[in-house]
Structures are given as C-alpha cells and as structure tokens.
Amino acid sequence: MRTEQTTEILLCLSPVEVANLKEGINFFRNKSTGKDYILYKSKSRLRACKNVCKHQGGLFIKDIEDLAGRSVRCTKHNWKLDVSTMKYINPPESFCQDELVVEMDENNGLLLLELNPPNPWDSEPRSPEELDFGEVQITYLTHACMDLKLGDKRMVFDPWLIGPAFARGWWLLHEPPSDWLERLCQADLIYISHLHSDHLSYPTLKKLAGRRPDIPIYVGNTERPVFWNLNQSGVQLTNINVVPFGIWQQVDKNLRFMILMDGVHPEMDTCIIVEYKGHKILNTVDCTRPNGGRLPTKVALMMSDFAGGASGFPMTFSGGKFTEEWKAQFIKTERKKLLNYKAQLVKNLQPRIYCPFAGYFVESHPSDKYIKETNTKNDPNELNNLIKKNSDVITWTPRPGATLDLGRMLKDPTDSKGIIEPPEGTKIYKDSWDFEPYLEILNAAVGDEIFLHSSWIKEYFTWAGFKDYNLVVRMIETDEDFNPFPGGYDYLVDFLDLSFPKERPQREHPYEEIRSRVDVIRHVVKNGLLWDELYIGFQTRLQRDPDIYHHLFWNHFQIKLPLTPPNWRSFLTCCEQNGPGISQECKTT
C-alpha cells in the first residue's frame, strides 16, 4: 500500500545553539535517542546529515588533515566525506551522503527533518519508452504557466495570464498567446503549486470558471491550503483536488504525476514531477529547497525559477545601512549567487533539457518606477550560457507560444523542429497593462465604512492573533508616494501585550516603521489577506531599529493569519449600537 511522504524530527536546536553555530563543521547528538548528526555552516547556508558512514556505519570525526575545515573522517576505515558538498572524497566518486532537511522554527530554533521515503519517485519505477514526434509537447504561455500535451491528455501549470499579482505590484512581462483561454479550457487537469498570486491567479481562474467551473485542479496537501481564500474570491471552481505528498497520481496508463513539498517552506510551497511513458518532467517552481534537496537526476526536462527579485528586501527599506549604493551592491551579489546556485543544481541533476521560467514579471505601474529600476532580475540567457559552459545539458529560453517537442529533442537536440518558435511578428513583450479594473477593486476599500471607526485597529490585530513578542510597530497609511495619507491612520502596535499606545514604551524594545499605500493596506485588512500582498508586492516602505529581521512577526502575517477573514459585519453592528465613535486619536493631521 502506498503511503504519503512524511517528515520525522530527528534533532532540535534552541535559538541559542543556532546562534552559537560556528562556521564549518558542527557535531551534535540527540541525547534522547543517542543518534549523532553533522551540521555544516557556510555563512547563512546550512547543510546536515546523519553522522553515519555509508560504508559500514562508522562514526565521523573531524579530519585534521583538512585545513579548509570541510571534511570529516570515518573512525572505521578512514573514509572521508566533504560535508560542504555531501560527497565522499575518499574513496573519490563513490557515494553521496543522504542529506537531512534543515528547517528554522518560529523562534529561530532549528529542526533536522528526515523525509520518508526520501525518493518517493523511485516507487513503481518505469523504463522510458520511445516517444513519437509530437506525442509530448510543452508550450510556454507566460511566467510559470506551461501547457503540456502528454499523449491525448493536456496539463497546465500555474496559470497567471491576466491581471496583477501581489495586489498591484507585479504585472506580466510576456504577452500570452491570444488563445490562452481556449488552451486552459481544453486542459484535462491543472496543477497549482502554491498560494502566491503569480501562481494562483484569481483573475485568470475567474475567466476559466466562467467556461469550465468543473475543470480538475490539483494542489498539494500544504499546511496553509492553496485555496484558503476561494470563498472570498468569488471564483466558482467545483473540482479542486488536494493530494498527499510523494504518491504517484495516475491519470491514465501512460501518465502520472507526484507533488512534493518544499524543505524550507513546507507549509505552503510545492513542486511536481510529471512522468509520461517513463520520461520525467521536473518542475521545481519557486521551491527554495524542493523535497529537502533530494531530486531525481537525469530527468528529460527540468524547469525552475531563476530571476530573483521576488521580495521587498532590500528595495523597500531605508535608514541605516540601506543606502542606494548598498542596496545596488546587495542585489547584484544576491542575483549572482542565485545564478550560480541554479547552474550548480542543474549540473548536479543532469537533466537532458533545462528551461528557466517563473521569473517573467515586471513592476510596470508608473508609481513603482523606482522598484522597476532598482529590482534587477537575472537574465535567463546568462543562466543558460553558464549551464552550457559547465555541462552538456540542453537549454531552452522560452518565448510565449514557443513549443518544445520532447520526442524530437531527446532523439536529436539539433533537430530544427525540436523547438518551434512563435510565428514571426508575434508580440513577445507586453507594452500596456489594463491597470484600472484592478486598481478600482483596491480603491473601493479606502472609503469602506469599517475605517470610519478607529476601533478597527484593535479588532484587526486581535483577529490576527500575534502577541507576546517584544516588538513595537508604527503603521502609517500613505499616498502613492508613501507620504502620510490625508485623514489616514498613523498608530503604534505593541505586540508584547497587544496594546495601542500613543507613544513608544519606555522599556527597551525593537521598533519597525511600516508605511503602506492606503488602498492596498485597507484592502488587505478588509479581506483578511496575507501581508505578502504588501511586502512582496512592494506596497510598503520599511525602517527598523535595530536592523534585525523579526521572523516570527513576518512569518505570522505572511503565512499564519487565520483562514477566515475578520467578522466586519459583527464589528459594524457593534459600532452602530455604541454610536459613531469616530475617534481621532489615531489619525494623522
């Protein structure tokens, strides 16, 4: 009987133990089980494994001959393991050590997790069969959306084809093919990787639901349900299927797929393996560490994100070190690190073909000109050139409407019909966006009756449920240019006791100032949405003292808010019973 992939906690480290981790190799023992583990730290990156040699189960100790501090030596037969790569160096080219999943908890402690089974795709293995030309075709639509023809079935990934993502911060870079809606309607199934709106696009799904409300949609069994906000969205979809991780889902005799969790964000992120006649297509989407870093090698086609820039950090920060020069250098360094990481991942996994996608967005609204100019993205061609320099992997930089014929490419990568580009004259890049209908939805929240009553602040943050944490946040509603909005709210929240003081408390406390565009923050508050709409959507400007990332705070508001929105109807009824009560104490002058 097939069972869902599970995770087992092998070791827990306290926040103090995490803070005291030294660069290089760290040895730990779980005192309750007697089992030993190795953690390797390189700046902010952590890797971990069991302290057990693959040869005959010996214990590793520090290798005193390794001056770089990256290898350990087995006490039984002197086998050596480079913990920075998890590869055995003595004997060379022999084994790779099985890695454990490293996960930070809400208090900045650390968990070592083991996936079971670690390689679930190996269950019920199938040998690849020869593919006819045209039997398997992959057509790029836009961003992370692919249309897959797999025999007589069609499957679509992550359809974002109209409208914005993250409130109003992201817009499509590429012009989707004009027949995109017909393509969606013809699909036999749709996979949606996670709840972010550049993958779960309610404007796109609303168009689809108007034609095919019963289209089968598949999502992983994440802690935060992908469609947690379906009822609020008003989109009428009737065939959403939540499937367990690590189990093959059989579509027909030739086609099956398996959804896997992310090792860093298992509560919300997933990736997928699609297999047709034994040929695997691996789509890691946005996963930071898909399946804890364990992935199938030598798949037929691999696709992943590549661009970077999917965060408000550091562009939306100011004060202290956050000068324009510092931000530019940080962005340049981070993009290069991401490029090198993706190239190394592809080199390690050795897919036959690699395609960079899920990074084709632009901050096109005029009010976000600063973000557009500073938030540079990686060039897919630069990544592909780096991959080709270090491996024999075939690369594909997709353009909207381009189709890859997998059978042809596997047989002869030089086949001129292996990749069919869109017809000459096809519009590739968008040069206009229909802003108004989506901005109207946001603007509708500004004058909502809720915000006539200053007590909405206490109501909202009580609903949010975050407290008992020493952090004071000043929230300021602003105009388009992040200047205080006339008549808007400017208030303090003390999360230690969830109070709303007029002045900062006398005790020592970390402090953040969050300026948010009034239309977006009120839309988020009114609908109980996650703060990714604000932060990833570049709709805030932030300052903090000291310069510390408060993971517990941001993780709560970005992923752990209640699944049901605030009960504003009850709130307004209570306000009516108590009189207008339009307090000015939290308002700006």
From TrEMBL:
Any Pfam family hit: Rieske
UniProt GO MF annotations: 2 iron, 2 sulfur cluster binding; CMP-N-acetylneuraminate monooxygenase activity; metal ion binding
Compartmental location: Cytoplasm
Domain of life: Eukaryota
Keyword annotations of the record: 2Fe-2S, Cytoplasm, Electron transport, Iron, Iron-sulfur, Metal-binding, Oxidoreductase, Transport
Gene Ontology annotations for the cellular component aspect, listed alphabetically: cytoplasm
Pathway annotation: Amino-sugar metabolism; N-acetylneuraminate metabolism
UniProt-listed PROSITE patterns: RIESKE
Catalytic activity: CMP-N-acetyl-beta-neuraminate + 2 Fe(II)-[cytochrome b5] + O2 + 2 H(+) = CMP-N-glycoloyl-beta-neuraminate + 2 Fe(III)-[cytochrome b5] + H2O
Keyword Iron-sulfur in annotation: yes
Primary site of residence: cytoplasm
Enzyme Commission number: 1.14.18.2
Start and end residues of each Rieske domain: 13-111
Keyword Metal-binding: yes
Function: Sialic acids are components of carbohydrate chains of glycoconjugates and are involved in cell-cell recognition and cell-pathogen interactions. Catalyzes the conversion of CMP-N-acetylneuraminic acid (CMP-Neu5Ac) into its hydroxylated derivative CMP-N-glycolylneuraminic acid (CMP-Neu5Gc), a sialic acid abundantly expressed at the surface of many cells.
Protein name (Swiss-Prot/TrEMBL): Cytidine monophosphate-N-acetylneuraminic acid hydroxylase
